[in-house]
Structure formats: structure tokens, C-alpha cells
């Protein structure tokens, strides 16, 4: 090889070595308003930064079968993307949840929430919880077709065995059998949650409804306001998918 060609090859190699590779930090983009944009298997979520004292935003990612789940916070992802971004990219499903905190008891990710609302969540990817629950919700809905509704539009089915209750609300006027509906489950402690899953996207809102152990009944009159409050937070988080809790 001539001296001229050797010089040319060396020049090209030096130039190639100087091209910066995209660091993992670039996988966590920033929106114009400063929020972090994180990809969850094709679903983009927008999340505000948080201080080390505020553990509002957590992640859970699937590991190899039989080895459980890896858990970390948004601050961990931002501090060490080289470790956590590959975990996001290689997981079959990813959970991200955001809740109230000691420092911010009345808001989630900077958004004021209705009294009692304490957590919202998203799961992107395969969710083994969905299919069995869809069958359960359909059975509860079938029973509710002929039940009376209360003054707030909900039907109620109590399970005395475990002191829990299932509430169904039909969302469309006319034939209940053709109506969309909300299924809401409440436990013996007074905690309630609504859950939905559509096309590899699962969503939930959880809230505290009453002090059941002290004999208080669920605050049904607040259900719609609490659900709407959680949906508002999720709509702020999810950028490229609709937030829909209705079942068919």
C-alpha cells in the first residue's frame, strides 16, 4: 500500500472513531416543558423530574421467566441510564406508576387530584392479569344488567366472604347489554381501583374511599370525580395513546 493510501485510510479511521455514539442518555428525551420522555415498548410517557426525597414515580420491568421483576425509580433511570435503559428495551412488559408522596399528598406528577386518589399506573406489553379479569368483569356486568342503580348511577354486588364489593356503571343510555361500562372493585380496607386493558396497554387508578374497618361505607358519590381525576393524570402522562377505562 502506498504512503498516500495509508494516509487516506488512517484519516478515515480517525474520522470514524471521532463520530459520537448515541449514549443511553439520549434514550431519555426531554420535552419542551422539561419533562422526561421515556419509551415503554413503543408507548411514550412524559414524566416530571423529582427530588430524591419524592418517590412518586416507579418502574417495574419483567425479567427472565421465573426470576421476578426489577423495580427502580425515575431518579435511578435518569442517574444511571446505561444500566436501566437496556432493561426497559429488553423487557416483555413495563410498569410505570405515579402516586402521591409525603411532600405532595394532594397531587400526582404535579397535577392536583381529588381527595382519596393516591396512585395511577400504566403497563405496556403483555399483561397476564388482563384476560382472566376480562372474564370476571363480563360476569359482573351480566349480573348488573338487571340490578337497580343508585342515585349516582352505580350498581353494587357485595361479596360477604371477603368483605369486598364490585360496582358497575353503565355509560350509555338505552340498552344496558350494548352499553360501555366501568367496573370498580373495592376491598375490605376501603381502597378501590378501576382497571382497563386494551391492545397491550393496561391502565389503573386507585383511591381510598372510606374507613371500612371503622364501619364507614364506600363513598360512592365520589367515585366519578375520583376516576376522572386519575384519568386526567394519566392523560398527562401518556402521549401517543388514548386513555380509555370503558369496557364493552
Q: Which helices and strands, and how do they pair?
A:
Elements: H1 3-17, E1 29-30, E2 36-40, E3 43-47, E4 57-62, E5 69-73, H2 74-79, H3 81-90, E6 93-99, E7 107-108, E8 111-112, E9 117-125, H4 130-144, E10 154-159, E11 164-170, E12 181-186, E13 191-198, E14 201-208, H5 223-237
Antiparallel strand pairs: 1-2, 2-3, 4-5, 4-6, 6-9, 7-8, 9-14, 10-11, 11-12, 12-13, 13-14
Fill in the keyword field for this structure.
alpha+beta, 14 strands, globular, three-stranded antiparallel β-sheet, 5 helices, 248 residues, nine-stranded antiparallel β-sheet
Report on this model:
The protein has 248 residues and is α+β, with helices and mostly antiparallel strands. The chain has helices at residues 3-17, 74-79, 81-90, 130-144, 223-237; strands at residues 29-30, 36-40, 43-47, 57-62, 69-73, 93-99, 107-108, 111-112, 117-125, 154-159, 164-170, 181-186, 191-198, 201-208. The strands form three sheets. The protein has a nine-stranded antiparallel β-sheet with strand order 5-4-6-9-14-13-12-11-10, with helices on both faces. A three-stranded antiparallel β-sheet has the order 1-2-3, with no helix packed on it. The radius of gyration is 23 Å and the shape is globular. The protein starts with a helix and ends in an 11-residue tail after the last helix.
Amino acid at each position: 500500500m502506498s504512503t498516500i493510501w495509508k494516509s487516506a485510510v488512517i484519516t478515515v479511521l480517525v474520522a470514524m472513531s471521532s463520530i459520537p455514539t448515541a449514549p443511553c442518555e439520549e434514550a431519555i428525551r426531554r420535552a419542551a416543558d422539561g419533562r422526561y420522555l421515556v419509551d415503554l415498548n413503543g408507548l411514550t410517557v412524559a414524566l416530571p423530574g423529582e427530588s430524591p426525597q419524592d418517590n412518586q414515580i416507579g418502574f417495574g420491568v419483567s425479567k427472565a421467566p421465573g426470576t421476578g421483576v426489577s423495580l427502580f425509580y425515575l431518579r435511578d433511570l435518569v442517574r444511571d441510564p446505561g444500566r436501566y435503559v437496556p432493561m426497559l428495551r429488553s423487557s416483555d412488559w413495563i410498569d410505570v406508576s405515579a402516586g402521591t408522596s409525603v411532600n405532595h399528598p394532594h397531587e400526582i406528577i404535579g397535577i392536583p387530584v381529588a381527595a382519596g386518589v393516591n396512585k395511577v399506573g400504566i403497563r405496556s406489553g403483555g399483561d397476564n392479569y388482563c384476560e382472566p379479569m376480562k372474564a370476571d368483569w363480563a360476569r359482573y356486568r351480566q349480573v348488573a344488567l338487571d340490578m337497580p342503580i343508585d342515585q349516582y348511577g352505580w350498581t353494587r354486588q357485595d361479596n360477604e366472604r371477603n368483605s369486598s364489593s364490585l360496582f358497575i356503571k353503565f355509560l350509555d343510555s338505552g340498552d344496558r347489554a350494548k352499553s360501555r361500562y366501568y367496573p370498580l372493585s373495592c376491598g375490605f380496607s376501603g381502597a378501590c381501583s378501576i382497571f382497563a386493558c386494551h391492545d397491550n396497554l393496561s391502565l389503573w387508578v386507585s383511591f381510598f374511599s372510606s374507613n371500612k374497618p371503622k364501619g364507614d361505607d364506600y363513598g360512592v358519590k365520589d367515585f366519578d370525580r375520583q376516576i376522572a381525576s386519575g384519568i386526567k393524570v394519566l392523560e398527562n402522562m401518556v402521549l401517543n395513546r388514548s386513555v380509555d377505562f370503558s369496557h364493552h
